[in-house]
Specification:
- The complex is a heterodimer of chains A (306) and B (368).
- Chain A is an all-alpha fold.
- In chain A, 75% of the residues lie in helices and 0% in strands.
- Chain A has a single domain (77-305), classed as Orthogonal Bundle (MetI-like fold).
- The longest helix of chain A is centred in the C-terminal third of the chain and has 34 residues, at 272-305.
- The model of chain A is unreliable at 1-6 (pLDDT under 50).
- Chain B has 2 domains: 2-228, Rossmann fold (3-Layer(aba) Sandwich); 240-360, OB fold (Dihydrolipoamide Acetyltransferase, E2P).
- Helices cover 24% and strands 36% of the residues of chain B.
- Chain B is built from 9 helices and 20 strands.
- In chain B, strands 6-7-8-3-9-10 form a 6-stranded mixed β-sheet, sandwiched between helices.
- Chain B starts with a strand and ends in an 8-residue tail after the last strand.
- The chains are: A mainly alpha (306), B alpha+beta (368).
- Chain A binds chain B through residues 195, 197-198, 200-208, 211, 215-216, 219-220, 306, and chain B through 50-52, 72-73, 77-79, 81, 83, 85, 87-90, 94, 98-99, 101-102, 132, 146-147.
Amino acid sequence: MASTTRSNGGLWARLTAPKNRGPLLVAPAIIVLFVMNIFPLLWSFGLSFFNYRANRLKVPEFVGFKNFERVLTDEKIWDRFQTTAIIVASSVTLQLIIGFALAMLFAKHFPMRRIIMMLVLTPMMLSFVSVGVFFKLYYEPTFGLLSYFINFFTTEPFVLLSSSTGALAGIVIADAWMWSPFVMLLVLAGLVSVPKYLYEAAEIDRVSPWRRFITITFPYIKSLLLLAILFRTIETFKIFDIIYIITEGGPGSSTESIAVNIYRMAFQNFRTSRSGALAYIILFIVIVLTNLYLYSVNRRAAEEDL
Amino acid sequence: MTHLVVNNIERHFGSVKALQGVSFDVHEGEFFCLLGASSAGKTTTLRAIAGLEELSQGSVEFAGEDLTESPVQGRGMSMIFQTFALYPHLSVHANLAYPLVRDGVPRKEIKQRVAEVAELLRVTHTLKRKPSTLSGGEQQRVAIGRAIVRRPKLLLLDEPLTNLDAKLRHDMRAEFKRLHRELGMTMLYATPDQLEALTMGQRIALIRDGKIVESGTPRELYSAPSNTFVASMVGSPVINLINGKISTQGDQNSLQMPFGEVPIATQRFNMSINSGDELTLGVRPNDIHISSDTPAEFNADMSVSGRVHLTEPLGDVTILDIDVSGSLLKLVLPEEKATSYSPGQDIELSFQLSDAHLFMTETGVRVN
């Protein structure tokens, strides 16, 4: 039968033969992915070795690794890396602390637990833009809630975003507010997986709460906590939307993260090739972090098989 | 000396009454068994004594002290869980040392005591390993070790052998007896297995539906069960229970059984019996013999004839199911004698009336 189909049918018949139907159905998605993602990715990688600027008509010249060299030796870039590191470190730490505390709270049973938990999870489901706008209004010196409350204690107008520390704190708080529930979910999954009889055995063995936490609870959440840290580090490392909406990198350049810097370089200064080089350096860092993440996921899976 | 007093404790889960007034007491140094089917309330009773369950009513006293309100940690008891509840992320050594840390025992002594316990329970070779790499029997012994390492005054054991295979269970029964003798601590042992209770317990309390039905020594429960429930819970194979009716002719009372008439002396009964009352006759399978082959000193005053229905060889002994006028009687025969019987064969049985237990059919209460 198959041979008759092949000899009698034309191109269409061959394409729609049963064994080709699967690839045919997947093809549109693959084509879109290639055109919209993979091709630009490779093209921009190529461009990062030229001196292309998107707002000039000049034919770009090949410059080799010059763009990478300039980016890596630029003190400004290192300063942006530092800013990003500060934001990542403080935001992830804050998320861990708050997420952990929330998880401990929701591991207990209390009235309205489900409804309150749903409310607590909401920030995670909002878009970056709405969170950014929300916090921008919240920090607003004339009618923002924060300044309003602080003005009960002092008559001076309070402008959080005017100092570089204040602006950093504002960004970190907004990001932590949005993502603490995520950490909470992961830790909570670990907490509820601890068998209840272990706690009872520990009670019989007269163990102090701290030691009980270290020896019984913590081993169950350890690997999930590591996942949370890695996941949040990768995500926060790429932070852009919230900063761009709340401070646009200011005051000065004190909250300009590396992602904001790339945006500026590419779409305000039109140093397209150079920003491409920087973007690839960041992609490399994220790939390293992601591999760490995958490694720890696999390790957790192996642990559970035990 | 009375050590542990459980006084009329009740535990309700919503509308479900798991314990409805359980009372018993345990002497110092005693091996006390709590025997009952699953969901009879054994585990809840132990958990209530340990303080893991809040009491709805009643009190628990231990060594002269009322513990009803005191927290779990302050009770000085250890408990072995049915699931073993070993800490999965700690090594066997750390598991065994776990209960000692709180007491501020010096590091050197902890090491020594763990070594002693490991030696006693033969788990020294596993000390560096994680519990999940151990066999069931080893995990069980580590769980025991963890419970006894701090030398508690009372050890609660919640069906510790239920998760083990038959061979291991047999070995562990002997192990528990040895431990009890060597350590001399009071043990309260919950089990659904009457064999465990009979072989290990110095005294047994039978529990059903959250109530203690009867308590006493294994001998007492076996030879004079107070009702049909106790009679059928204790002893293996299960006691033969056959219903009959009292008929009176002049002074003489007799019990009309399916297989004939049994003369009984009602004047020695602890309640008055009237003609027409229904009684249940109970005879243990070990008390029934084959008429042609009765032991010396056996004064058979009752004999019945029947037909072999089924043989159940158990290795050293065989259980014969005999069909006697429609009801089945079980008896135990040594293997070598049982080989000459096969299903369908006619057989004559005899037993002594002094071995028989009589119960009211309606209430199950013992009358003789």
